[in-house]
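WARN no homologs supplied; continuing
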Amino acid sequence: MQVDLELLNDLYVSPLMSLRQKAEDAKLAKSGSVEVLRARLIQNQVLGHIDLSWEGIQSMPHKEIGEVLKIFGIKSSGSHKERRQRLWLHLNFDSRRMTIERLAEIDREKLHELCQFLELPLTGNRTVLMGRVAGVLTSQTKGWGRIKRSLRRNGILITPKNGNKILDEKMENLPQENQEKEIPSSEIIDEVSNAALEDAHDSLMIGFEDADFSLQGDILTIQARVEDLDRMISTIIKSHDGVWGDRENDLLIRLAVRRGWPLKDQRVKQRLSEVATNIAEIKGAQLGGITDLEVDKKGHINRIRQKLSAVENILSEEEKN
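OK structure emitted
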């Protein structure tokens, strides 16, 4: 399948604000997360010649739909039906918001419609329909919604062989040395855009709209500190060599608790971690990476303590200024 690899590569590696500008220039909707925008731009600018409506997806041969999934930078393996489901989900939903937990908020009519588009049986009550959709979301976990980490970080490996703008099969498995390439801390964005902060602000409340007053109060308190969250994430990423993973998330939670943030409820902690990871991704951090901190267990603990102290000192200085 012929595509413009240079344009596709640019869409893979562009940050949120750049994608918003590209969408505005193309007169496309510029709302949504970085992944939603990227999928929209790929659909309209790279694959504009292909019918990607639900009916169009249904008519695609098995091999062609696999090639299209590779162009979107998501998982391309699976049965023909699984591929159709994955592509439709990727084009129509934000994976951070279309979750199993959110299904409980959807009425029967909408669940019936989801079952229809996901090619599932349409009979049964609301609970049965919800279970069917949940089954698809579980089987498709991490297969859609976000492009592969190696593509997001390194883009496409363009060589003379694939320089004629034909999608190379090597996109499926980029060389390991490219996948493990670390991002210099100097390339980390200090402060993300207002649009990204607004998206983080809104994402914090998703799923808590009907929660009890106390829980909503905790979320609202954190929402008011989104700019502080942004600065804390930048400081942690830079002190951890451009990496953001479970340890960095844990460090963020510990710092937030020390600052008096209301994080007693595990659901609030989880949501804060999810939003923080999205911000870290926008900043250009290497997600889930492994650093030399993990080489020696004892040394790792000592280093973490030193990092925690250093981060707190930096944040304290920032507050004074």
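The mean pLDDT is 80.
OK
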